[in-house]
Amino acid sequence: MRIFFTGGSGKAGRYAVQHLRDLGHDVTNVDLDAPADGRSLRVDLTDAGQVASAMQAYADFDELEPGTGVPRYDAVVHFAAIPRIMIVPDNETFRINTLSTYNVIDAAVKAGVPKIVFASSETTYGICFHDGEKKPDYIPVDEDHPMVPQDSYAMSKVCNEATARSFQARSGADIYGLRINNVIEPQEYAENFPDFMAHPEKRRRNIFAYIDARDLAQMVERCLAVDGLGYEVFNVSNDDMSVNLTTDEVIARFYEGVEKRREMGETETFYDNTKAKRMVGFAPRHSWRDVLKG
């Protein structure tokens, strides 16, 4: 596939772009910080003209050789965003994230791209950046959980999901949203997780979950491989919690009184990923437990 990938220089994007290239896909990294090399474009995604032009442009010199004009993209993956609050002013977070998402999906639909995958967020459930403690309405948290966040970042992601749903209804393209949990790179297990073991309360805002960057890349791969779902959103997390406690211990310490909707495994994630497994074949392979044995 020829893939237009925004945010390919970011924490999560780097892994996904490399994974897709390793599988043989032709991936263009579209990012303000994209390197000045082949298959990369520096684009301001808040500028609709730049987005539309980039999506219908050559990605590298080899594409000039056939003499058949600019090739079309088979898929768009949109990861680029201001990644959280407290980086730029709140209104800029909201403006950049919502406008860039509109521009990317709008350009993709008008260019006839049949598959669009975009990054939403765990924050949409209103827990991560809540003022004070906010418990889930129920556990495990699935895609039907209410989304009423307080912060500009999560608000932008909720709006982006509404934008994507509307574009899908108008175009009929497959548009899948990924409600991505806290992205962890492999080296962060040794660097950060011992502290999480000692202070599990630090993981409360992430619903005690995480997603390995390599497994997130696999989720993107699966979304690109599965067609015909229309509009869908998926929680994306690893199978286990990010703390060295049992399910019952976490409930007793942090979720007392919260409705438990089904039985859960001893170390199962509270950020339910079963829909992604069922519908696109997501199969996370990594765990902090493989690094921090015992």
Q: What can you tell me about this protein's structure?
A:
This protein has 294 residues and is an alpha/beta fold. It has one domain (2-185, 210-241, 271-287): Rossmann fold, CATH 3.40.50. Helix content is 34%, strand content 15%. The protein has eight helices and eleven strands. The strands form three sheets. Strands 3-2-1-4-5-7-10 form a seven-stranded parallel β-sheet, sandwiched between helices. A two-stranded parallel sheet has the order 6-11. The mean pLDDT is 97. Residues 4-195 form the NAD-dependent epimerase/dehydratase domain. It holds the Pfam family Epimerase. InterPro entries: Epimerase_deHydtase, NAD(P)-bd_dom_sf. This is Nucleoside-diphosphate-sugar epimerase.
Question: Which descriptors apply to this entry?
Answer:
294 residues, alpha/beta, Rossmann fold, two-stranded parallel ribbon, 11 strands, 15% strand, globular
Basic shape: globular
The CATH architecture designation is: 3-Layer(aba) Sandwich
Per DSSP, the total helix count is 8
* CATH homologous superfamily placement: NAD(P)-binding Rossmann-like Domain
CATH fold label: Rossmann fold
| Rg result | 19 Å
Helix share bin: 25-40%
* CATH class assignment: Alpha Beta
Tell me the structural class.
Answer: alpha/beta
